[in-house]
Every structure is written in structure tokens, then in C-alpha cells.
Amino acid sequence: MKRRDSIQRLMTLTGALTLLPTWAQAWDGNTLKAAKLFASDESEILSSVTDTLIPATDDGLGALSLGLDNYLTKLFAECYDTSVQNDIKLFLKGLNDAAQNIYEIPFVEGVQQQRQQILESASNDPVFAETFSLIKNETIRGFRTSRIVLTEYYGYKVAPGVYIG
Q1: What is the DSSP secondary structure assignment for residue 153, as one 8-state letter?
Q2: Is there a contact between 73 and 35 (Cβ–Cβ < 8 Å)?
């Protein structure tokens, strides 16, 4: 391998690493600015979906307390193209329509079990299965990489051990 080629590859790799979105690592719900991707009713449905997937525990740790709905909105607005964004909007509308048809109430007004049943039926629907899988996976990834979960639940430390200078 020639030295120039290896230096060029090294510089390309370094440039690519600096362009990665740093906001997605160890994020906090307070540090995110909400993106304007969804209408207010769609944002409420997305909040209900995240709350259904990761409900609050006894100590108050859940999707909504971490601001996962804002994280997902920003993620979908900045990292996915418009066709995926439109699929997500269609999925959220489909959830609301399913709740109206089955329980005669909007999706956000349903109790946990009703919302779980609607999400389970959506996961089995071939039209919505891929979009549901995307939302579910990104919700779980966002939960596991949030600053509070990393530091308080997993006990993550940037430099483990004690430093004595």
C-alpha cells in the first residue's frame, strides 16, 4: 500500500467520524429542541406510542420522563428521508383510526392495554409492520442511550476507577 493512499483513507475516515451526529450520544431530554415534523395530534400519538412501549416505572423512569418523543421527532426529522417520514405519519394516522374503530376513542385517550392491543395488531399488519419496527427499535435505542439511563441504571462512567493526580 502506498503511503499517500493510506494517508488519504485516514483523513477521509477522520472527516467522516467528525460528521457523525453527536447529539444522538448520551442525549438528555432537556438538551433537545423539538423539530417541527409532525402536527400536534401526530406528536401526541407518537408520545403515546413511546409511553406504551416503555411505560414509567415506580421510580418514574419511562419514555416520556426522558423526552423520548422529542428525541424521536428530531431523529426522524433529521436522519430519515421524506418517504420514511410520510410512512410514519401514515402509521400514526392508522393507529388513531384503529382506536376510533375498535374502542371509539382516540389513540391517546386509550388505556395502556388498549394501546398495546392496537400496536400488536399494527405489528402484524404487513403495511405497518416495518414502520412499527422502526419506531420500536429507535425508541429502545433512544432509551438505552439516554444520559440518565446510562449513568443511573447502567452505572456508566467515562473513566472508570479513581484518578489520583
Answers
A1: I
A2: yes
pTM of the full structure: 0.73
Cell numbers representing residue 74 in the block:
428530531
Q: What backbone phi and psi angles, to 5 degrees, belong to 154?
A: -85, -15
CB atoms within 10 A of CB 131: 20
Q: Per-residue DSSP letters for 74-143?
A: HHHHHHS-HHHHHHHHHHHHHHHHHHHHHHSS-GGGS-HHHHHHHHHHHHHSTTTHHHHHHHHHHHHHHH
Other Cβ atoms less than 10 A from the Cβ of 160: the count is: 7
Q: How far apart are the first and last CA of the chain?
A: 42
Phi and psi, residue 83, nearest 5°? -65, -40
pLDDT digits (tens, 9 = 90+) for 32-59: 555 677 888 899 999 999 999 999 888 8
Q: Which helix (H) or strand (E) is 148 found in, with range?
A: helix 147-148
What is the mean pLDDT of the segment spanning 106-126?
92
At residue 34, the pLDDT reads 55
